[in-house]
Design goal:
Elements lengths: L10 H29 L1 E2 L9 E2 L3 H7 L2 H34 L4 H9 L6 H11 L6 H8 L10 H30 L2 H9 L4 H12 L1 H17 L2 H7 L11 H11 L3 H24 L8
Antiparallel strand pairs: 1-2
Helix pairs in contact: 1-13, 2-13, 3-7, 3-10, 5-7, 5-11, 7-10, 8-9, 10-13, 12-13
Subunit structure: The complex is composed of two ATP-binding proteins (UgpC), two transmembrane proteins (UgpA and UgpE) and a solute-binding protein (UgpB).
InterPro entries: MetI-like (IPR000515), MetI-like_sf (IPR035906), UgpAE/MalFG_permease (IPR050809)
Protein name: sn-glycerol-3-phosphate transport system permease protein UgpA
């Protein structure tokens, strides 16, 4: 039978919800409402002129801007690479960690450590490793005849921020996958082994289907992470360069607002970015979730 908690007082549930509701209102709804308001206005970044109501003019200018349309393609490539690579690598590491008997604690602790590193610091670490002049990885690649210079090569710059973003997020994904693997009854794996199923077949027919809720959850989280939480990595590693090869949408919002001083255009971009992420999340829950086995 379904159990329901009944509060004796009507105000107690609202009092318990109040702290979280205040945080959401202050740090989400109020900034979002300000972005919506500024997106239909034209204003001087220094406040020397009156605010003008321009309606949809800021949005129209964005669609007429080839660099903004190009940033959509850059963001799409970046988010797909980060989500797919991060989930795949963390799943592989979780499978290996689940099978380790000796030294398992040390192995798992080392995989969790990157999550404690700030995004900007993670970007700087990877920039130093791949620096064309003093990076150890770039030096090693040069010995194999591969000339690495992400300051001039757009594809290499994209690869650099993808690697930094995946490395920063891999610990988060790893924790959820490891918890999901350890929650699968060992009796199912043992029964399949007795029936003659090899490890690879046991994984694809038993473990991976049972991990589908975890995989779906991480897919949503990683897409949101790639769209919103990778600004510091791009800013510290490439600053959107070379040219605008790594200027993803969240970085372009910052660049146009704080460097180009286009407050209305930047607000319009933030509104569009928010709508894109909401739409992607709805699509994932509407269609991708149908393939999830709970």
């Amino acid at each position: 039978m379904e159990k329901r908690v009944v509060f004796r007082s009507r105000w107690l549930p609202w009092a318990l919800l109040a702290p979280q509701m205040i945080v959401i209102a202050v740090f989400f709804f109020w900034p979002a409402s300000q972005a919506l308001l500024q997106s239909v206005q034209a204003q001087d970044a220094f406040g020397t002129s009156a605010v003008q109501w321009v309606g949809m003019e800021n949005f129209q200018r964005l669609w007429d801007d080839p660099s903004y349309v190009e940033s959509f393609k850059t963001t799409a490539v970046f988010s797909v690479l980060v989500a797919v690579s991060g989930i795949s690598l963390s799943l592989m590491l979780a499978v290996f960690a689940d099978r380790i008997v000796r030294g398992a604690t040390a192995y798992k602790t080392m995989l969790i450590l990157p999550y404690a590193v700030a995004p900007a610091v993670a970007a700087v670490l990877w920039v130093f490793m791949f620096s064309p002049s003093l990076g150890v990885v770039a030096y090693a690649l040069g010995h194999f005849g591969y000339d690495w210079n992400h300051l001039l090569n757009g594809r290499q710059a994209m690869a650099l921020i993808v690697m930094a973003a995946v490395w920063k997020q891999i610990s988060y994904n790893f924790l959820f996958f490891l918890a999901g693997l350890q929650s699968i009854p060992k009796s199912l794996i043992e029964a399949a082994a007795i029936d003659g199923a090899q490890p690879w077949r046991r994984f694809w027919t038993i473990q991976f289907p049972l991990l589908s809720p975890t995989t779906f959850f991480l897919l949503v989280i990683n897409v949101v992470y790639a769209f919103f939480e990778t600004f510091a990595i791009v800013d510290a590693a490439t600053e959107g360069g070379p040219g605008a090869e790594t200027s993803i949408l969240v970085y372009k919002v910052y660049h146009d607002g704080f460097k180009a001083m286009d407050m209305g255009g930047s607000a319009a971009q933030s509104v569009i970015l928010m709508l894109i992420v909401v739409a992607l999340t709805v699509v994932q829950f509407r269609y991708v979730e149908k393939k999830v086995q709970y």
